[in-house]
Amino acid sequence: MRFRPILVAASAVIAVTSSPARAQAVNSDSTTALLVDLIRTNTSNPPGNERQLAELLAPRFRARGFEVKIIQTPDSAKAIIVARLKGDGSKRPVLLAAHADVVGVERDKWTVDPFAGVIKDGHVYGRGAIDFKGGMAVFARAAMMLAERKVPLARDVIFIAEADEESGGPYSTAWMGREHWADIDAEFALNEGGWIMNGDDGRVRYVSISTADKLSIPMTVTARGTSTHSSMPRPDNAIFALSRALAKLSSYETPLSITPATKQFFTALSRTSSAPMSGYFRDLVGSDAARARRADSIISRDPLLHSLIRNTIAPVIIQGGFRANVIPGSAAATINLRLVPGSDLNAFVATLRGVVGDTTVELKATAPTYAQTAPSSENTDLYRALTAAARAQFPGAEVTPYLFQAGTDAGAWRSRGVPVYGIYPYPIDADELTRMHGNDEKVSIASLAQGTEMIFRTLVDVAGRR
Ligand SMILES: [Zn+2]
């Protein structure tokens, strides 16, 4: 499905109507300006060098009255900034989390310098524009605006720019949770996750707020055989055995697995779509299994939607052999499993062993970092505030909980029972979505302004003193 980008001119000043900041102006340009500075700070990971970004942000938060800590990790180039705007302490803190690192670039495939923060055609271009420096700029500006407008706060508002989200490196939020939990403890948190998706008419079609992430699990498939001279091949060739196993996995489709949030998401999609897709979306989450299977076969042509409704299997690395005249004794593949929360990992691997049907091939999955947790509750003040702000910002849009198809670093909080809600806080279209982790990543200036206003409204609602 393709969507046309939003056709709203960027306005420098937009009105915010949330009490107590009624009729005050939001300088939307400042989110754009901050994003440009963030993109110019190259935090491609590896190596990340996230400390530079903490140093860029620290004086800006301090100047607005935030308590700022730069938490140094054992790696001198990696630090995590925690900026806290104090409330009166009558409620527990709300936290805004944004990862400071970005994935690298294929520079020759970009039409602009990915680390220059180029502004062109109403968009900011650069690595991280969507994932997640755009979100960081929105979260930081919304929090700063609370201080600038002297909004009286009932709870602390904590902003954190964390390291090692993209690389799987050691100083992620898991490290923060172990070493510095008191600094990031909160009643609930916002993070990256769901989407504000534009429709064909240039208006926001839905706002999906993630309440859980799929689990990413590495599984190795190892085939063994006799290692010998390649002039005398035997039937027990490890590479052939591995190939047969992978071929069987490639033609196996996992069954539907639909969570309550996913059901709400597809119900929302059906209300914002036209026939015949609206009917397929309804059938997918309806009670007729045959209709659901037929709907699945059509809906699953979209890789994103396919991934939301089942466990997935993706081979990512293959190893075997070292020279032309030796048959290797083993060959192995790494398979990335992505599980719908609540799935039984051992049962799933046992099913895959049955699919492979060869007892000489070993399938071994690694246990996840965190034990599985229930999705974050939709019955919290933060979820309600974000939902209300999204409805006010994007009238007519469906607002729905969502199972995020990928992983984030929200586990540090969710594993301790702290609800985390995920959103990329700016309207985007399908084209912009494909540029995330790709080439010419960009976000529209109008979207940044709308997102800043929405998150500011959310914070005033959830943290403002009544
Ligand atoms: Zn991200």
Please tell me about this protein's structure:
Strand 3 and strand 4 form a beta hairpin. This protein is an alpha+beta fold and 466 residues long. Mean pLDDT is 92; it is low at 1-26. The chain is built from 15 helices and 19 strands. The strands form five sheets. Strands 3, 4, 5, 8, 9, 10, 17 and 18 form an eight-stranded mixed beta sheet that branches. Helix 3 packs across helix 15 (445-463). The chain has helices at 29-40, 51-62, 133-148, 173-179, 181-184, 238-250, 260-271, 277-284, 289-299, 303-308, 345-356, 381-393, 411-414, 430-435, 445-463; strands at 13-16, 24-27, 67-72, 79-85, 94-99, 119-120, 123-125, 157-162, 188-198, 204-213, 215-224, 228-229, 312-320, 326-327, 330-339, 361-365, 398-404, 420-428, 442-444. It is 33% helix and 25% strand. The protein binds zinc ion. Zinc ion binds at residues 99, 131-132, 192.
In brief:
This protein is of the alpha+beta class and 466 residues long. It has helices at 29-40, 51-62, 133-148, 173-179, 181-184, 238-250, 260-271, 277-284, 289-299, 303-308, 345-356, 381-393, 411-414, 430-435, 445-463, and strands spanning 13-16, 24-27, 67-72, 79-85, 94-99, 119-120, 123-125, 157-162, 188-198, 204-213, 215-224, 228-229, 312-320, 326-327, 330-339, 361-365, 398-404, 420-428, 442-444.
